[in-house]
Structure formats: structure tokens, C-alpha cells
Design brief:
InterPro entries: PPR_At4g14850-like_plant, PPR_rpt, TPR-like_helical_dom_sf. This is Pentacotripeptide-repeat region of PRORP domain-containing protein. GO terms for molecular function: RNA binding. The chain has 20 helices and no strands. It is mainly α. The two termini are 44 Å apart.
Length: 315
């Protein structure tokens, strides 16, 4: 494209920026952008999105705030959400305050930035000023209260919500489970006439975290549909507790094994000093191995004083 007769076509160049950015080729995207003779709003928006998508938020800010001839709300919102997603609430606030206009999407992103970073009081101030509350804003505020342990306030807000979705129900169930009110989480779970996968995953996680392994396994067996995530949660909880016979039984029965479940098994065997089982599973059973899996094997050797085994594998 850079050498083709179409390289000066703004429409095609904009599309190519998008393609390069989604493939992680930021330098190539910037070359295309710089080569457009008449850059338009879409050119800038695509390039800003490319920076955000590839984690270069400072460059996205520079392009939007210093170089972009006319700024619409699209790049501003993208940069704001980028800072929210990367856990930078102060940067998000800086962008929010400078925006020429703020719609409900921007307000929701800003509320999420405060609530996700334990700034619940600041989030509540924003919530009270919200121009048009929607299910996203209600749920973000609810999640902030629940995550920070302010369960009473979460309950009151939950009751005031005009409508509940799966995310809001999971948020308050998580809050109950994380802060010692598993009984309330279980009661809410069983009170629901219909349960989706998010409800089951939340309940399984809560049971696993509180070492109620038999209850977690019983719930797994009652689930209406299979989920690799659900199987992995229960299997990992048995492995972490040292119940490797049960963990192995679950691992063998898993409908679709994954690297996370396999790594949990490796870590469980290592914890109990079962290096032969650890190696057999790692080298003969695992279909794929990522960096976490290799680190787990190295950790197994280290925990059991087997430096020579580690050298044989890694050197």
C-alpha cells in the first residue's frame, strides 16, 4: 500500500491504519497516517484508536490535544476509556475535565474509573451529578460499594435500581462473598428464578474461596451447561488445598482441558512434592504450555531442591 498508486487515497489509507493497529503494527500505521496528504477526522480518529489499542496513551493524548485540527468527542472518549481500563483514574479525570463536551458514555467511564480504584466517595459525587443514569452507571456504583466492603450501601442502591441485569446481581453477590457474607450470596443465588453462567461462576468462586469444596463440586455437577472456567475454578481449589486425588479425578473428567487447569495441577503436585506426577503431566499430558506453566515447573523444582532437574530442562 505504501508504494501503491492508491497510497494517496484517504479512505483506503484510513482503513489500512485500522488494519495495522489491530495487528499490533503501530509503526506501520503511523507511516500510513503520515503519508496521507489530506488527513480528515477519520484519519485522526483511527490513529488515536491505534495508539490506544496498543497501549500508547500518551501518544494518543498528544495527537488529540496538540495536533488534531478539530476535535470531536470520539477520540476524547477513546482516550478516557483507555485510562480507565489501565487503572489510571487521575489521568482519566484530567481528560474528562478537558473535554469540550461530555455525553453519558464519558460520564459512565469516569464513574467506573473512580469506583474501580476504591474511590467510592468520589464516585458517589459523580453519580449524584450524573446527567442521565443508566444501567451502566448504576452497576458501576454498585460494584464500587460492594468491592470496598460497603455492603449496606450496596444493598440500598441495589434496591433503588430501576432494573437489575446479570452484571448488577453478580456485583452484589461478589460483595457478599468477598466480605464474609457467603450466606447472603447463597440466598441471592437460590432466590433467582433463572441463573446465567455469571451467577454460577460467581457462586463457584465464592465457595472455592471459602474452602467449601464439596459444595462447589456439587454445584458444578448441577450446572445446566458445561464451562471450562467453572471446571477450572473447582479443580484449582482442590489442587490448592492439596486434595490431588480429587483434583486429578476432575482433570480427567474435564470436557475440555485448558492450560490454566493443567498449570493448577502442576502447582498442586509441586506443593505436595510429587515431582514425578508433576513432570508426567507437564511433558506427556499438557497439549499447550505458556510462560506461567513453565514458571510453575521451574517453581516445582525450586521448592523441592531439584536444581539439576531445572538445569536439564532449561539450559
Amino acid at each position: 500500500m505504501l508504494e501503491s498508486p492508491y497510497r494517496h487515497d484517504t479512505f483506503l489509507s484510513n482503513l489500512l491504519i485500522r488494519v495495522y493497529s489491530e495487528c499490533g503494527k503501530l509503526d506501520e500505521a503511523k507511516l500510513v497516517f503520515d503519508g496521507i496528504p489530506r488527513q480528515n477526522d477519520y484519519s485522526y480518529n483511527f490513529m488515536v484508536h491505534a495508539y490506544i489499542l496498543n497501549g500508547s496513551l500518551d501518544l494518543a493524548k498528544q495527537l488529540s490535544f496538540l495536533e488534531m485540527p478539530e476535535r470531536d468527542i470520539v477520540p476524547w472518549t477513546g482516550i478516557l476509556q483507555g485510562f480507565v481500563d489501565t487503572g489510571q483514574p487521575d489521568e482519566a479525570k484530567s481528560v474528562f475535565d478537558r473535554m469540550p463536551q461530555q455525553d453519558v458514555v464519558c460520564w459512565s467511564a469516569m464513574l467506573q474509573a473512580q469506583a474501580r480504584n476504591d474511590r467510592v466517595d468520589q464516585a458517589k459525587l459523580l453519580f449524584d451529578r450524573f446527567p442521565q443514569l443508566n444501567v451502566v452507571s448504576w452497576t458501576a456504583m454498585l460494584g464500587g460499594y460492594a468491592h470496598s466492603g460497603r455492603i449496606r450501601e450496596a444493598e440500598l442502591l441495589f434496591r433503588k435500581m430501576p432494573q437489575h441485569d446479570a452484571i448488577s446481581r453478580v456485583a452484589i453477590m461478589n460483595g457478599y462473598a468477598e466480605h464474609g457474607r457467603l450466606d447472603l450470596a447463597i440466598a441471592m443465588f437460590h432466590s433467582k428464578p433463572e441463573r446465567d453462567m455469571g451467577d454460577y461462576i460467581t457462586m463457584l468462586s465464592a465457595l472455592a474461596e471459602t474452602k467449601r469444596l464439596k459444595d462447589a463440586r456439587a454445584l458444578l455437577e448441577k450446572m445446566p451447561e458445561q464451562s471450562p472456567v467453572a471446571w477450572t475454578i473447582v479443580l484449582a481449589s482442590y489442587a490448592q488445598a492439596g486434595h490431588m486425588d480429587d483434583a486429578r479425578e476432575l482433570y480427567v473428567a474435564m470436557p475440555a482441558k485448558n492450560v490454566v487447569a493443567s498449570t493448577a495441577m502442576v502447582q498442586g503436585y509441586a506443593q505436595g512434592g510429587h515431582i514425578r506426577d508433576c513432570e508426567e503431566l507437564f511433558f506427556e499430558t499438557m497439549a499447550e504450555r505458556d510462560s506461567m506453566a513453565w514458571n510453575s515447573l521451574l517453581g516445582a523444582y525450586s521448592q523441592n531442591g531439584l536444581a539439576s532437574n531445572a538445569e536439564a530442562v532449561f539450559l
